[in-house]
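Ticket #4471: structure output looks truncated?

Reporter: J.K.
Steps to reproduce: submitted the chain below (533 residues) through the standard prediction queue, then opened the result file.
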Amino acid sequence: MDRWRAAAGALSGLLAAFAALASAELVSAAVRPEAGPVTAVGGAAIDRTPAPVKDWAIQQFGTNDKLVLQLGIVAVLALSALALGVVALRRRLVAAAGVALFGVVGALAATGRPDSTGAVDALPSLAGAVAAAGLLYGLSGRLARDSSAGDNLPQASESSGDVPRAATAREWDRRGFVIAATAAAAASAGAWTLGKSLNAASGKDAVASRDSVVLPAPGSAAPAVPKGAQLRVAGISSFVTANKDFYRVDTALVVPKVNADTWRLRIHGTGVTRGRTLSYADLLGRELVERDITLTCVSNEVGGPYVGNARWIGVPLAGLLDECGVVPPARGGRADQLVARSVDGMTIGTPVDDVMDGRDALLVLGMNGEPLPFEHGFPVRMLVPGLYGYVSACKWIEDIELTTFDSYDPYWVKRDWAREAPVKTQSRIDTPKPFARPKAGTVVVAGVAWAQHRGIDKVEVRVDDGPWQPADLAAEDSRDTWRQWSFRWQATSGGHTLAVRATDRTGTVQTGKRTRTIPDGASGRHSVVVTVT
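Returned output as attached by the reporter:
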């Protein structure tokens, strides 16, 4: 097999893969964007990835973990396409069958997703497989040896033993292949562009519904942030985290675009005597409350970035449940777990007692003075102060079912995370950064500490193996928000290790014992190494 023909075969495979993705993208515009094969297979991979691996990916790639996964899927597809293209030079039907197999995998992944709408979700993957198999079969046909190419070649003399090279390697249709490949690439590019455009336009009604929202003034407004809550220290986190900077950790490869005008929330289940279905307008018409609340992801390592503080506005969830006849277990109620379901199939379980114990558990409509961004759950998400997000903060919520912990395991519990997960008392050094080289003299060490729904009572800093020394605390907004702190260190030349610990209002001191994020959040003390010059 000459190398140019082999290269053309590999190119055929790549063009077939591109045709598959382009066709699937176009068909998904008629079905739904989430049914596309890369998204469907990626979602299936996330669902089946062991919790430690998933947590590792978040630590390594942060909020780019989904992009890395999608690029990995495309890379596997490309390598497989290269191989199938070469196989097609000798076994066209076998290669076409291999392409079809990828389509079946995509179809099964799409129809097996928790948010699947049925068999129709298989159409993008199947359409892509048909397009790819047909194109690969056709292009590989162009690469077949042309038996007529040697008919007019010079005849070799039997006595000389010389055989013209062309007589032993019949030609393939180079010109026909180039024309067909170019046309296929152009058609695929057009289909891809059109599909992307249509999918982008499919969310325009949702975007319009968000743009039309005017959040009413809350009946219970949040108090002004106290003066002194934000320290004037370079490098410290902002007390209020801007929406664009707020962390995002979820399993959605495609951010759901939900139309608030057609959105509905159903409340039902064990102990619900008066089930309800509410519209977005219904929630806007209720008395709203506004609160500053710090939210923390259970995947946050000690000293990690997955924590943020925002001003939220929403409907008190406890009052709504009370109207539905729900009684918490602490008062003899039958249901001890509230299962929130998202439009993307995510399920999150929250203790009913925590939702109804008087804390500001909310169905959130707004974030930092504007309707929720789509990335953070528009039109409505749930939030319960003091609990990690995976047991309290369902985004794009559409269903609330009251049940028991014994009868149902939500998404993360099925993957070895704890059923209940109150936020652990934690603190972080924001400045100086690890391996910084500050000058000798007074160095301001500063950061944040949090223990939502308990509050921070004390923060201490230790230099090397010295004693714990008290830090200065910033003004407290509420026990549901983080608290800034600072410590003026008289730094001496050389290498030093700075460590921090917090004590919450219950008297619990942040432990020095390091644990993983699994099953209920990381523990340990944050430290940084610096060199004073």
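Triage note (M.O.): checked the attachment and the full token line is present. Confidence is low (pLDDT under 50) at residues 147-169.
Status: closed, working as intended.
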